[in-house]
């Protein structure tokens, strides 16, 4: 999730854990800072664009390492504020602020390696978009109210209510995702499409409109479904996966890493002599958030070193207008024109 959401979540759980034993401003600031701490791994350059993507949300987001770091950080904070008698309470607050970060990240489609070093597979539920105001606002209002009330009983109740509402919203997103998947499965069966993998993830900023993505060995199928669509059938767009462009690059480390990261939802194509590979889970056809130059079409031995990230995003105004119309059930084209 975005840094604002992570700060707000860390602050809210720290306030709840520390109660009236610590001033609310201190709890909010430490909780917020600790809630964003795992994302400092983005400052590490692994020397390659694909490696930077794949190794984000790895060791710094592993529940074991964060749990081991919690007592060390808590001891330092308690000593700094001369509150060693409250070490256990600080330990609880620090642990919650740290581990809720990767647990929230795991709700997005990107994927988070929660179980390192025992299991390197990424967990990505995919039911929340990386920025969702309806998740974040209850947390901000609750902690803000607690600060305004200077941590009195009503303020702490407001903070707890914000945590409850945000958690219920996350639960709603999972239920909504299951409905979207059921709609997609029925539609694919009706059209005779046999998919090896199926994904449902929310369009930006909300959980009313869902992007559906089905994979077959040769194609991807993309559609959108909204709670406001009624009985209108899904309109699937067939997308050529371009596997033939990877013939000479099939064993390149960057290609293998990105295909594993995308969990089978990838697309490949050529731009002149350059071979491009995208994680199709994020973005929409024809623009994907993570598109990489992975090799040259005329270099049968060596891929390009290092890989290069290309960013092709829809203009914000066009994207928001499309999102608003499609969310309420309008039969608009899959994407605004270029």
Summarize the structure.
The protein has helices at residues 3-18, 24-36, 49-54, 63-80, 87-105, 133-148, 153-190, 253-261, 316-327; strands at residues 197-202, 209-215, 219-226, 237-240, 266-271, 274-279, 283-284, 287-288, 291-296, 308-310. The protein is of the alpha+beta class. The protein has a domain at 3-173.
Describe the structure.
With 338 residues, this protein is an alpha+beta fold. β1 and β2 form a beta hairpin. The radius of gyration is 22 Å and the shape is globular. The strands form three sheets. A four-stranded antiparallel β-sheet has the order 1-2-3-4. Strands 5-6-9-10 form a four-stranded antiparallel β-sheet, with helices on one face. α1 packs across α2. The protein contains nine helices and ten strands. Helix content is 43%, strand content 15%. The mean pLDDT is 93. The protein has a domain of 171 residues.
Topology:
Layout: H1 3-18, H2 24-36, H3 49-54, H4 63-80, H5 87-105, H6 133-148, H7 153-190, E1 197-202, E2 209-215, E3 219-226, E4 237-240, H8 253-261, E5 266-271, E6 274-279, E7 283-284, E8 287-288, E9 291-296, E10 308-310, H9 316-327
Q: pLDDT average, as an integer?
A: 93
Question: Spans with pLDDT under 50 lasting ≥5 residues?
Answer: none
Rg, alpha carbons:
22 Å
SSE order: HHHHHHHEEEEHEEEEEEH
Strand order of the largest sheet: 1-2-3-4
In total, the number of strands is 10
The structural class is: alpha+beta
The dominant shape is: globular
Distance between the termini: 28 Å
Number of helices: 9
β-strand amount? 5-15%
Helical residue percent? 40-55%
Main sheet overview: 4 strands, antiparallel
């Amino acid at each position: 999730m975005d840094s604002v959401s992570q700060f707000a979540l860390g602050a809210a759980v720290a306030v709840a854990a520390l109660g009236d034993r610590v001033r609310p401003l201190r709890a909010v600031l430490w909780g917020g800072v600790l809630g964003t701490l795992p994302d400092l791994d983005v400052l590490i350059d692994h020397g390659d664009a694909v490696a930077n993507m794949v190794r984000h949300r790895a060791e710094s987001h592993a529940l074991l390492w964060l749990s081991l770091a919690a007592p060390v950080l808590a001891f330092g904070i308690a000593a700094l504020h001369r509150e060693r008698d409250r070490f256990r309470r600080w330990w609880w607050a620090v642990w919650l602020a740290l581990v809720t970060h990767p647990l929230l990240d795991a709700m997005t489609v990107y994927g988070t390696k929660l179980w390192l070093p025992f299991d390197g597979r990424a967990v990505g539920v995919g039911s929340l978009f990386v920025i969702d105001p309806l998740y974040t606002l209850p947390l901000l209002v609750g902690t803000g109210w607690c600060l305004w009330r200077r941590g009195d009983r009503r303020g702490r109740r407001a903070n707890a209510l914000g945590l409850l509402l945000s958690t219920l919203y996350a639960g709603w997103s999972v239920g909504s995702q299951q409905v979207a998947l059921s709609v997609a499965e029925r539609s694919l069966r009706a059209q005779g499409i046999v998919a090896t993998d199926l994904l449902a993830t929310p369009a930006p900023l909300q959980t009313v409109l869902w992007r559906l993505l089905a994979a077959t060995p040769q194609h991807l199928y993309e559609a959108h479904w909204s709670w406001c669509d009624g009985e209108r059938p899904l309109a699937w767009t067939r997308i050529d996966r371009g596997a033939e462009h990877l013939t000479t690059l099939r064993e390149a480390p960057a290609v293998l890493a990105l295909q594993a990261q995308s969990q089978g939802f990838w697309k490949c194509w050529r731009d002149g002599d350059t071979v491009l590979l995208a994680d199709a889970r994020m973005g929409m056809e024809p623009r994907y958030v993570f598109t990489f130059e992975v090799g040259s079409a005329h270099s049968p031995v060596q891929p390009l070193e290092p890989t290069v990230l290309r960013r092709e995003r829809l203009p914000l105004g066009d994207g928001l207008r499309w999102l608003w119309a499609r969310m309420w059930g309008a039969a608009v084209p899959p994407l605004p024109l270029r």
